[in-house]
């Protein structure tokens, strides 16, 4: 993996760059659609590529490990081939889902013992095994195994957990360095900063993680329920301790406004289920604010879904028609809004990039965060 | 509407033709994907057109009448504009769903009183109102209001019902003739033959319906649970009483084998929910037989979904991947199999057309019905 920092905004810490992987280039800042189980829900791969204009997608190690399982993924030649996606992929380490989905899990220094949310079977994830699994999945960018603390989190727990995450990182790096990719192309390991919403912990974690000198860095443990001010404060603080020349990935963030504010703080990469999950519930994001397509007010509104939208669904389908599809619970409704929201997110980060390059990012961002907060 | 009979098979009653509507030409024999509530489940309109290669789709009057409702459809300028589909549409009369979906319905000479399956509200469909609703929907081809008798059906009930359907047809024609299309293009009314599985009734109904001298004719009350032999015997019998130069539509049929056998009996048009409904349950049709994509045997089969398939999904996705999508209940699985099955149905009728034109239909059909019956 290679990252080239290209331009910086004069009035903020926003920057643009190009991240090069074995499966192609990624222009940052970028948003990564979440493809939980080897599919971004409701979208064909060509729609992701051509309509959404995704440059990289994310897969969930926990889900892929359980189904289809490592054996099948290895036989397929990795996730790219399994799902027929030839562009970059990032996988998380499985930790987050172990904590959020598994009913019972026991964390100790060795790793996490958990029961599958599907059949209750017992499994053990260790830092080493998380590397092995991600070798089998074969994503271009893979994540260190960490503990993602919840919010709120008591200080002493957050500190102990963070230190364990740091020790786990060492074990991840050792395993990563002593193994080779299975499918003939390079993989890159990203370490994860933790520390909950405590400034001193975040500083310590950022310095520790930076000292590993890996090619990219990630910030975890945010967007877990804390107020936006905490999200921004922690992100701002952490970015100051991370090397400028390496890409920064803020995990699990967020709303369109979150993206713009965090781009201003120096973040290059994002992922979040929000655009697709909300799409499936009829909430879409537009340049002029948030719209609930199920509202009665759209019943006889035959104007196109989003006149400023960049995807064909925005001009092809009317508000009235999409509302109807949700009213009658037809799958096409979710398919349309999912394409819309992802295309909007990709437009948003792409436009942020253009504005940074033009030196106009901050003014544009300040205008956009007002518009984006409106309710349509 | 105009129909031009083009070629006939020397060894069967199969024929090809071109049906011209205000929204374009339809090459027969043809299969019409069912778009119940203004959407063929799980497919974008451009997928229907470009991937499935549908030439005409079917809408359900009962569903569209309840939601989005006639008022919205009229404001939209008809169903074509509402769903953004500029090719031909046929709507049924609503009768079939009134009988099959509505919990309580009372049939008398005037019409059918029924309760909505959605909210229990009371509604009355009469032959006249079924015409008015279909004027509002604005399909190119619209169906007379009939009673579709169930199977089995006692002879006297079938006879009385058939006579009422004939009287209703007269009322449909009168209403149709005394009203004009709402959206500036012609609509064509098709009468429906009934008579259950009784030869004398089918003969009487076919003769009566033919005597109305409408531009096309339809056969109803079949594919309601009767054995295939009855389906074929009734279809065969009825076709002999229908004018050769007019298109014949066999409603609600059927399996790929049913299609081929009924094409051989002189049918030009079909519709059925089978390809989409079965697709959503993981059953796909191929030239070599029926395949349940959920079967364990496909777990590690990374060959493409259908090597003989004509749609891009057949070469893009592997059996293993599609099985995985069904295992984890991901929407994309159903989207893929729905495109596959509809593309297969459209390929099947298109190939039948080619074989009829080449004079080789019967031999090909006899070979195909063996292949299609296999289990993969």
From TrEMBL, chains A, B:
Binding site for substrate: 92-96, 146, 194, 221
EC number: 2.4.2.29
Keywords: Glycosyltransferase, Queuosine biosynthesis, Transferase, tRNA processing
Start and end residues of each tRNA-guanine(15) transglycosylase-like domain: 12-371
Catalytic activity: 7-aminomethyl-7-carbaguanine + guanosine(34) in tRNA = 7-aminomethyl-7-carbaguanosine(34) in tRNA + guanine
Biological process (GO), any one: tRNA queuosine(34) biosynthetic process
Pathway: tRNA modification; tRNA-queuosine biosynthesis
MF terms (GO), sorted A to Z: tRNA-guanosine(34) queuine transglycosylase activity
Entry GO CC: cytosol
InterPro entries in alphabetical order: ArchSynthase1/Queuine_TRR, TGT, TGT-like_sf, tRNA_ribo_trans-like
Any Pfam family the entry gives: TGT
Active site, renumbered: 92, 271
Record bears the keyword Transferase: yes
Subunit structure: Homodimer. Within each dimer, one monomer is responsible for RNA recognition and catalysis, while the other monomer binds to the replacement base PreQ1.
UniProt function note: Catalyzes the base-exchange of a guanine (G) residue with the queuine precursor 7-aminomethyl-7-deazaguanine (PreQ1) at position 34 (anticodon wobble position) in tRNAs with GU(N) anticodons (tRNA-Asp, -Asn, -His and -Tyr). Catalysis occurs through a double-displacement mechanism. The nucleophile active site attacks the C1' of nucleotide 34 to detach the guanine base from the RNA, forming a covalent enzyme-RNA intermediate. The proton acceptor active site deprotonates the incoming PreQ1, allowing a nucleophilic attack on the C1' of the ribose to form the product.
UniProt name for this protein: Queuine tRNA-ribosyltransferase
Species of provenance: Putridiphycobacter roseus
């Amino acid at each position: 993996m290679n990252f080239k920092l290209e331009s910086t905004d004069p009035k903020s810490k926003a920057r643009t760059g190009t991240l090069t992987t074995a499966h192609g280039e990624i222009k940052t800042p970028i948003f990564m659609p979440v493809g939980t189980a080897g599919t971004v829900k409701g979208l064909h791969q060509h729609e992701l590529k051509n309509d959404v204009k995704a440059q990289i997608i994310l897969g969930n190690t926990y889900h892929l490990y359980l189904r289809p399982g490592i054996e099948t993924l290895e036989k397929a030649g990795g996730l790219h081939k399994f799902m027929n996606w030839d562009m970059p992929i990032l996988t998380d380490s499985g930790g987050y889902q172990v904590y959020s989905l598994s009913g019972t899990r026991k964390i100790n220094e060795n790793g996490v013992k958990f029961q599958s949310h599907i059949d209750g079977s017992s499994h053990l994830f260790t830092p080493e095994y998380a590397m092995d699994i991600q070798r089998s999945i074969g994503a271009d960018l893979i994540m260190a195994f960490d503990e993602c603390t919840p919010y709120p989190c008591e200080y002493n727990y957050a500190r102990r957990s963070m230190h364990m995450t740091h020790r786990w990182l060492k074990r991840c790096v050792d395993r990563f360095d002593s193994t080779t990719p299975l499918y003939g192309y390079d993989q890159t390991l990203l370490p994860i900063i933790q520390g909950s919403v405590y400034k001193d912990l975040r500083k310590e974690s950022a310095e520790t993680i930076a000292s590993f000198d890996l090619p990219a860095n990630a910030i975890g443990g945010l967007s877990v329920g804390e107020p936006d001010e905490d999200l921004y404060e922690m992100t701002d603080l952490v970015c100051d301790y991370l090397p400028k020349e390496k890409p920064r990935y803020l995990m699990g963030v967020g709303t369109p406004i979150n993206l713009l504010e965090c781009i201003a703080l120096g973040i290059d990469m994002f992922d979040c289920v929000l655009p697709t999950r909300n799409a499936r519930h009829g909430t879409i994001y537009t340049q002029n604010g948030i719209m609930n397509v199920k509202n009665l007010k759209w019943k006889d509104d035959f104007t196109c879904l989003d006149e400023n939208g960049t995807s064909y669904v925005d001009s092809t389908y009317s508000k009235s028609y999409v509302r109807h599809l949700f009213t009658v619970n037809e799958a096409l409704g979710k398919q349309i809004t999912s394409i819309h929201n992802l295309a909007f997110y990709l437009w948003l980060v792409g436009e942020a990039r253009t504005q940074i390059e033009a030196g106009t990012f901050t003014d544009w961002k300040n205008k956009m965060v007002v518009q984006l907060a409106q309710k349509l």
